[in-house]
């Protein structure tokens, strides 16, 4: 990549790994005291914010200042909103069943296993997924049409994710909805509008890193990994397995798009109209 500061970027990769690891290690220390490892979910967005801010500082004097600032603001806003939302959603709850099942299989010390298989693994994923954010801040190309498209895609994804989370939280806050399936607002068009929003966010950040063909090749691993995680990994597939036996979920699944928002399919006349 002509003009790309490879030596500075290589140093940034190490600093970014340190930033992600520091957030995860601090979270592990707090989780040990509280006895609740679900705190790592709150640290996910904060770790991206830490990597982004570290990269912004490291990239000073390199890359395009407008691109650097835009990517930093977008990623920090996304990461902090996500962390605050997850922290608020999990207040007063005990351990997440996912981590209970995982740690029940620990061959030795549960803490050592949790550190290795939860915190350090997620720290490594943050480092990998954040590649577009790191690359973009070193691309020595002014903002152009591709960057505008990326910013618009990011904004659409941020809106989907934020609105979807807000609608679901408001629905769950009503005791009358206890045990019912959320099928209103964006959730009537997609079973996972928040995950779809996350998908758009990372493809938008990827476009912001596409100053050249080589920078695109370096950054594309991130949205591909996130797309797989959201649809086949710890996102959509895992959540749907947990909800499969909930009353009304089969009917909701039959009429509602699994990921990409689409108009709901018409219910058969023989279907129970209750959600």
Automatic annotation (TrEMBL):
Q: Enumerate the UniProt keywords alphabetically.
A: Membrane, Transmembrane, Transmembrane helix
Transmembrane portions of the chain: 6-31, 43-63, 113-133, 139-160, 200-230
Note the InterPro entries from the entry.
UstE-like (IPR010721)
PROSITE patterns per record: S5A_REDUCTASE
Please state the span of the N-terminal signal peptide per the UniProt entry: none
- The protein here is known as DUF1295 domain-containing protein
